[in-house]
């Protein structure tokens, strides 16, 4: 539980910080979610796949990404 709290804390702290000049709020929130997910992958409070799905879920719940944007990478074929 401590590692999970660290992941959430890092992401929340970054999301609550004001974005630098020239960075949109959406981009800043996406960076916060990405950073929290990476910290989760490093500290492993849950298995890798679960941490990735939680990051994806948070990005959709906060309306940082739409469903189509979040899952667009799964729809394209890799040659």
State the helicity in percent bands. Answer: over 70%
User: How many domain regions?
Assistant: 1
> pLDDT below 50 for ≥5 consecutive residues: which ranges?
none
Q: What is the 3D form?
A: flat
Number of helices: 5
GO molecular function, one term: malate transmembrane transporter activity
Main location: plastid
GO cellular component, one term: chloroplast inner membrane
Family: Belongs to the SLC13A/DASS transporter (TC 2.A.47) family. DIT1 subfamily.
3D structure, described in words:
This protein is mostly helical and 79 residues long. It has one domain. It is 71% helix and 0% strand. The chain is built from five helices and no strands. Helix 1 (2-16) runs antiparallel to helix 2 and helix 2 (25-43) runs antiparallel to helix 3 (48-61). The protein is flat and about 40 Å long. The mean pLDDT is 92. It is a multi-pass membrane protein. Keywords: Membrane, Plastid, Plastid inner membrane, Transmembrane, Transmembrane helix. GO terms for molecular function: malate transmembrane transporter activity. It holds the Pfam family Na_sulph_symp. InterPro entries: CitT-rel (IPR030676), SLC13A/DASS (IPR001898).
């Amino acid at each position: 539980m401590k590692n999970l709290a660290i992941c959430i804390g890092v992401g929340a702290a970054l999301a609550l910080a004001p974005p630098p000049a020239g960075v949109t709020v959406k981009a800043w929130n996406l960076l916060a979610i990405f950073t929290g997910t990476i910290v989760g992958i490093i500290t492993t409070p849950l298995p890798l796949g679960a941490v990735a799905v939680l990051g994806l879920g948070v990005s959709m719940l906060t309306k940082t990404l739409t469903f189509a944007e979040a899952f667009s990478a799964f729809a394209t074929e890799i040659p």
